[in-house]
Amino acid sequence: MKHQNGNTVITKDGIKTNGHSSNGIKQSLPEDPKDFQENFEETPIYIAVLTYLCYGILVLVGHVRDFLRNAGLENEKACTEPRQSGFVPLFQSWESFYTRHVYRRIRDCFNRPICSVAGPTMDVLERTTTNHWWTADLTGRSHNVINLGSYNYLGFSDCKGPCAEAAEKSIQKYGAGTCASKQELGFLDIHQELDLLVAEYLGMEAAITMPMGFATNSMNMPSLVGKGSLILSDELNHASLVLGSRLSGATIKTFKHNDMADLEKKLKAAVVDGQPRRSRAWKKILIVVEGVYSMEGSVIRLPEVIQLKKKYKAYVYLDEAHSIGALGSTGRGVVEYFGLNPRDIDVMMGTFTKSFGAAGGYIAGTKQLINHLRLNSHASIYSPTMCPAVCQQILSSMSIIMGRDGTLEGKKRIEQLKWNTKYFRRELIKKGFIIYGNDNSPVVPLLVFFPTKLGAINRMCIEKGLGICVVGFPATQL
What we know:
Blueprint (H helix, E strand, L loop, with lengths): L7 E3 L5 E3 L8 E2 L8 E3 L5 H26 L22 H9 L19 E8 L8 E11 L14 H13 L14 H14 L3 E5 L2 H6 L11 E5 L4 H10 L2 E5 L4 H14 L11 E6 L11 H10 L3 E5 L14 H4 L9 E5 L9 E5 L1 H10 L1 H4 L6 H15 L6 H22 L6 E2 L12 H14 L1 E2 L11
Parallel strand pairs: 6-15, 8-9, 8-10, 10-11, 11-12
Antiparallel strand pairs: 1-2, 3-4, 4-14, 5-6, 7-13, 12-13
Helix pairs in contact: 1-2, 3-12, 4-12, 12-13
């Protein structure tokens, strides 16, 4: 057994090796999906050095310009916070510095205004600037581009078709919003119908839905664990999971991404040593992982996570935001992808903002768990319920995926997504690009490394008719 870069993989011979690979050589894992492969080609050393150098030059130039600005020699304005006597700074200095001198240089690549439905193709408004992107103005032109940047995995987010028509009818019946929480006057029959359908679709006893995906994690985790509990979190978990863990007050420890040996080591230490300075057993140990990781495109090694959970009597919190609807033969996520029993997952979370073309999120589990969240979750008590039209969008798209509309449209879309994913990855690798992640992951990260290239490739793709997302440090590792 070898461990390197925090990843382990089981080869066809049953031998564990590191999850990363050099020179594009892949390691495979013989789960139920026999073509489970993940590729994490090592960064060439000269590329790594040049990337650090590129960021270093940007930071150095930024400090020089700040010095010139403070001396009155720099005329270019800066969005800096005024220094007021007796007041604590509102922004952290590094965040403000990074926004001024790094993010601003490629600001045109983010927050692009879209003036059409963000479907298979979309119209992106063109912007220009006269002050180095401190501000931007519209030129009146637009670019029609292929949408390669959204999470509309199955194409249900559209302004026409059965989903849109059903959503329109729901507005006529229920109105545009509920204006109340679940525990007041905001819980309609359509919300109950949605909760029941989500539970049935996932194969769980019960489910509860929330109007915001981010809050589904951040506002519900504090209701599940607290002081005296331990959270073991994958180091690459989403910000919503990180925030929810911090708000809970529980002790947090991270383990290396998808490294089951490191996870077991920390589980064993937690069981043997207990709480620090008190030597008492932890009230709960919660393992927090995602199905598909949105920046790396990797898939969690869920069979091994469940084995460790059972071995050390822990709980599993699974975030299926990017895997529900996108993995598995019927779109039921990473649990179905590995052929596992969904009841082995203690807390199954997901969002409706990807495959279902809507908004909000859900948590599924036992009836006891869901009843607890209904009574104790801040997201359930204080937040207005989901808009009826959004509920209907989810009901319609989920029914199509399940085949309840009497057609094979849902299965067809799932199969098309799988084909597109594999074809897109294979052709990019053939052209020599470094592509990360699992071969079946709908998230396809293409590495360009340099912050200057982020802007260049985004602008070039827009001109060529491709709408992509570029992401850099600190949203990803440098």
